[in-house]
Design goal:
Blueprint (H helix, E strand, L loop, with lengths): L3 H6 L1 H10 L1 H13 L9 H11 L5 H14 L7 H12 L4 H11 L8 H6 L9 H24 L1 H13 L8 H10 L3
Helix pairs in contact: 3-4, 5-6, 6-7
Amino acid sequence: MITVDDLADRQSKIFDALKRRHADLDRYAYTIRSLRSLNVAQNQEYQRTFNGLYMVRRNASWRSKFYGLLETCKTDSEPKFVMVLDKLFKETGRIEASFASKLIATINPALPVYDSIVRINLGLPQRSGRGSDRIELLLTDYANIQAHSSELTKNLKFQELRATFDKQFPEFMDFSDAKVLDLMIWQVR
């Protein structure tokens, strides 16, 4: 399981990698800053930006349902992972923990993302199977990710890393601690 010490030990590589991914930081900023001012179910620029940032490789029908759900949920300041995961499953027939977490973390940037990079770095197993059993495992995993993210961001060493991030990327000082942590974890591969 990744620790703040791991991130601190790799901070030079992490920040170098983030500089190379500046376009992704710009994309993320756009998705967060534009969310409430646009109809994301209809705005093609927003969808292209989100798709590029999060590597959305689904068909038009799936994307239409996803962006419709994002548009519907964006007024809820505290969207629930379980609700979005369930709605995505009912709408698309797919269990999409990663995209469910990205949707709620876009609405509430204080929430962490659940994807393969985070899962691997936190030592969580890949979940397979169908239906409610898999969903229950994913819910437990997401709760663990939330707890670990909260623990890491409260650590003094993380706050030092955050200060370095803010100094190197002042235009993104409004990014949440959870997002900055996610960006750092993503650079550890």
